[in-house]
Amino acid sequence: MHKFTAFLCFGGKKMKLEDWRNEIDSIDAEIVRLINQRAKIAQKIGVLKASAGLPIVDETREDAILRKAAGGNKGVLKNEAIIRIFRGIIRESREIQVETQEKMTNGEQILC
């Protein structure tokens, strides 16, 4: 068996595969933190929507989110990929709002 060690220079520094994986792990942790922060806000919005008698789904707002996300994309991901990712985030946000409103209907305390 051949042992393959590859390096890729980044900012004048040699980085191995494990270094890049550590970078990804750190970024993934930050993504999870931010998605949970967004979900907490979606929960609060669900409470406000329920109190105001508004529907959970707001297609105009969701379309605006998708356009803004794709429009701000300056990376290697295609806009279609960004849209797919954000559709998943929006779907989960809707689910949180549904769960929140069900809890409110059942008289449960919502901690926002």
Compute the number of strand runs. Answer: 2
Please give the radius of gyration in angstroms. 20 Å
Instruction: Characterize the largest beta sheet: strand count, sense, and whether it forms a barrel.
Output: 2 strands, antiparallel
Helix amount = 55-70%
Notes on the structure:
This protein is mainly alpha-helical and 112 residues long. Helices cover 68% and strands 7% of the residues. The chain is built from three helices and two strands, in the order E-E-H-H-H. The protein has helices spanning 17-52, 59-71, 79-105, and strands at residues 7-10, 13-16. A two-stranded antiparallel sheet has the order 1-2. Strand 1 and strand 2 form a beta hairpin. The N and C termini lie far apart (56 Å).
Show the helix and strand layout.
Elements (H helix, E strand, L loop, with lengths): L6 E4 L2 E4 H36 L6 H13 L7 H27 L7
